[in-house]
Amino acid sequence: MTNFNELGLDQQILATLTQAGYEKPTPIQAQAIPLVLAGRDLIGLAQTGTGKTAAFGLPIIQQLSKDGKTVGPHGVRALILAPTRELVNQIATNLKNFMRKTPLRINMVVGGVSINRQQQNLLRGTDILVATPGRLLDLISRRAVTLAAVTHLVLDEADQMLDLGFIHDLKKIAKLIPAKRQTLLFSATMPKAISDLAKDYLTNPEKVEVTPPGKAADKIEQYVHFVGGKNDKTAILKEQLTANPDGRAIVFLRTKHGAEKLAKHLEQVGYSVASIHGNKSQGQRDRALKGFRDGEVAVLVATDVAARGIDIPGVSHVYNYDLPEVPDAYVHRIGRTARAGREGIAIAFCAPDEAKLLRDIERLMGISIAVASGEPHAGVAPARPARGNNNGGRGRSDQARGPRPPRPARGHDGKPSGDGAEAAGGRSEHGNRPPRNRNNRPKFGHGRDNAGGQGERGNEGRKRGFGGGRPQRQNQA
Question: Per the record, where are the segments of Basic residues compositional bias (predicted)?
Fold first, then answer.
């Protein structure tokens, strides 16, 4: 196995890594660090939790430390863009740890907090700036920062930035950066839009791939409960949370309204819950994440954007209360568990109007997700795996399914008990809205930061009811 001292890192950085407890590089670090040190543009395909920050951060810190240049007032030498406040904060925190023995300065700028304080922090110049695109453009418009001296540009979670409509912001920012620069692009998936972005902004890039696009991280067991509606979802969720009192769970919903409503309901019936979504202030988000990270809160209810970039060890379960309308989002969601080599369980709830969404997820991942309870909604042909079974052997391909045995009972951890998990069969579509086409996204404009949440564009889908009674029709979120 490769060691850090084989990657070309200098002794100062190696000493910092040793003190921080880093022993072996992750696959993305082992592949990317030598290429970045060599000055190559790079496309890195890897899920969150694979060590991407060190993969680009360590070589950039070494390059900036060695070139001996100083940054002028309002200037920036390395710019790292990420889609959400939480991810920006996480990247900046990790980089600060790596930079402890260097004179380099680092700043972060995000929406939802005082722009005046950020403007003051940028006065003396910044060696490494970590930013969300919208707030960065706000500061540029105030002449608080200039990008004319940038030599390194990193686009982290690039697929998510495009999903959120940041393409126009990225184009504006790129025009302000010298063409002679090193550009690094990291993404968990590689849709056509990312390929086009790479062609426009990278020069003869090297490509490193740790996890094939659409494949979940290893050691994630995936199961689906077929349900009749929201009431069933809530009931099964509470069963699972009660059966796993020592677990740490993230529950994903599509809308801010739905996330808040579910969190309040769970809290009312006695669960230790916090929520993060676009209607929460930055302070509320930070407190919720701290409580979850410290173990004071056992359940975190979240929307996709708010939870992007969360890196909390020990998440045992991820629940897809609502299936995402974009299949790639499912891969990102379940990537919150089984981090750093740990095992994890991902449980999805599928109502009749979500059957096609499930089929699209299975098609993307090339698997049939094992059924934990309920009967698959009839009428829609089963997904045909395109890349083989990427479920760690825990689901069976459609071709190998054969006759369906009796349905196994549900176990305490959400898995089917008995001798094995039966793969999902035919799915049905009951008047559901079609999932978004990632290659033909609507153009949303700037996707600016605001107090309501960086990247929370207010279009997370319809608000839906849950709990007792019929779901009520709500206004658009």
Answer: 433-445
Residue 157, H or E segment? none
Dump pLDDT digits (tens) for 102-157: 999 999 999 989 999 999 999 999 999 999 999 999 999 999 999 999 999 999 99
Taking only the tens place, the pLDDT of each residue in 148-191 is 999 999 999 998 898 878 999 999 999 999 999 999 999 987 88
Secondary-structure class of domain 4-209 per CATH: alpha beta
Angle at 257 between CA 87 and CA 290, to 5 degrees: 35
Domains of the chain, by residue range, sit at 4-209, 220-423
**Quick one: how far is CA 369 from the chain centroid?**
21
Half-sphere exposure of 339 (CA within 13 A, CB side): 22
Q: How far is residue 267's CA from residue 263's CA, in Å, rounded to a whole number?
A: 6
CA–CA separation, 360 vs 341, rounded Å? Answer: 27
Structure tokens at 95: 């980089």
Q: Which residues of 392-415 are buried (b: 16+ CB within 10 A; e: fewer)?
A: bebbbbbeeeeeeeeebebeebbb
Superfamily of domain 220-423: P-loop containing nucleotide triphosphate hydrolases (3.40.50.300)
Alpha carbon distances (Å) from 370 to 184, 219, 333: 37, 15, 17
Amino acid identity, position 164: L
Q: Are 83 and 131 in contact (CB under 8 A)?
A: no
306 burial level (CB within 10 Å; 0-12, 13-18, 19+): buried
Give the span between the Cα atoms of 116 and 119, in whole angstroms.
Answer: 5
What does the alpha-carbon distance between residue 246 and residue 295 come to, in Å, rounded to a whole number?
10
The whole model's pTM is what? 0.65
Domain 4-209 shares a fold with domain 220-423: yes
Rounded CA separation 308/394 (Å): 26
What is the DSSP track for 395-458?
S--STT--S--PPPPB-TTSSBPSS-PEEP--B---SPPPPP-GGG----------TT-TT--S
Percent helix, strand, coil in the chain (nearest 5)?
Answer: 35, 15, 50
